[in-house]
């Protein structure tokens, strides 16, 4: 049993979410916890128009979940998602163990490093994707 951290972005039918917002959160949590997973973050990302219709829907509710799960159980979770009527699409991404804490903090909208502790020595900005020109910005420069 090799536990790994995963991030999943679910796209739910907006009509189902509008009728039962709490049900979506519970459904995501129950799908993962029934397989022995541990949810680190589960939250609404956005509700917006889709780039193209999916199963006849033009609007979707995006739900983000970061969780730990046994790698062998991911296939079962995928099957459960496919059988869920209110779920339009989903995508699992395995997370690097070194990034999990940072991504969880970001998803919870917490500041990882306080602003006053960031040192402003200087920055280098690339002007264009194809251009080789770099602009050096130093603290205290004014135009």
Summary keywords:
143 residues, Alpha-Beta Plaits, alpha+beta, two-stranded antiparallel ribbon, 4-stranded antiparallel sheet, single chain
Structure description:
With 143 residues, the protein is α+β, with helices and mostly antiparallel strands. Strand 5 (122-126) and strand 6 form a beta hairpin. It has helices at 14-19, 21-33, 74-83, 100-107; strands at 3-13, 38-54, 57-70, 87-94, 122-126, 134-138. A 4-stranded antiparallel sheet has the order 2-3-1-4, sandwiched between helices. The protein has one domain (3-107): Ribosomal protein S6/Translation elongation factor EF1B (Alpha-Beta Plaits, 2-Layer Sandwich), CATH 3.30.70.60. It starts with a strand and ends in a 5-residue tail after the last strand. The longest helix has 13 residues, at 21-33. It has 4 helices and 6 strands. The protein is globular.
